[in-house]
Design goal:
By secondary structure, the chain is of the alpha/beta class. It has one domain (7-243): Rossmann fold (3-Layer(aba) Sandwich). It is built from 8 helices and 7 strands; from the N terminus they run E-H-E-H-E-H-E-H-E-H-H-E-H-H-E. It is globular and about 50 Å long. Bound molecules: nicotinamide-adenine-dinucleotide.
Amino acid sequence: MRLDGKKAIVTGAGGALGGAISRALAREGCAVAGLDLRSDGLDQLRTALRQDGHEAEGVQVDLCDFDAVQSAVAGIRARWGGIDILVNNAGGGMVRPFAEMSGNDWQQMIDGNLTSVFNVTRAVVPTMLERRSGRIVSISSVAALRGGRLVRHATGYATAKAGVIGLTKSLAIELATEHITVNCIAPGAQLTPARDNDTPERREALLSQIPTRSLGRPEDLAETVVFLCLPSARYITGAVLAQDGGHSI
Ligand SMILES: NC(=O)c1ccc[n+]([C@@H]2O[C@H](COP(=O)([O-])OP(=O)(O)OC[C@H]3O[C@@H](n4cnc5c(N)ncnc54)[C@H](O)[C@@H]3O)[C@@H](O)[C@H]2O)c1
């Protein structure tokens, strides 16, 4: 196990990609604390990880609430003594033509995909600074690189996910001498349960834009997160790694 004894926080752990990332980190020896707004997926994940002999926690919290996030992270830190890895994965898109977006729609996208990343990262960085060690990996999107061509009418989402890239690069520089790396993955369309609703026409339209003509596998994405957390990735920081079958080329 390549990350034996490490303590990891994974946001959105109750969802499809967050679950895959949590399982992959646990398999490598991490204790995993999942943070999520919804308790159902979180409870299932915690039970499954514990049954497999892993140390796991689940904390239900709205990541858009600064104070609630600070206290959730302080609780984990108090129980575990520190946090080695943070995966900012929670988020999600909204499809709405720009001319029909309300101010509330915009704020929802910025809060859910960007402010949430600030809130959790802000809560975790002090403990990483104290230990002069840490790994932060955030999940952006191909929408940030390509303006959301895979999902039309995703202006708010694409903008917020581009903000995650800016945060990654800026924070990577700020923490570079502290042995804390900050990286970001920009996935293309993943084969998650949300894709089960695709009509054959919709699926073909998606695949026609992707050079490999295939969707991403959540397990592969999870392995990329693991890779960025390994000791051998110590020299990689501020990177934006597209994992999209070549869609962003
Ligand atoms: N699935 C894809 O094809 C794809 C592609 C590119 C990027 N992404 C990104 O990957 C991440 C995970 O996507 P997914 O497909 O697993 O989605 P998902 O909907 O299955 O999971 C997202 C999880 O985040 C949680 N969440 C959302 N907002 C929250 C908040 N304010 N507080 C706490 N929890 C919150 C949800 O409850 C959910 O469990 C998202 O950031 C998404 O934008 C996904």
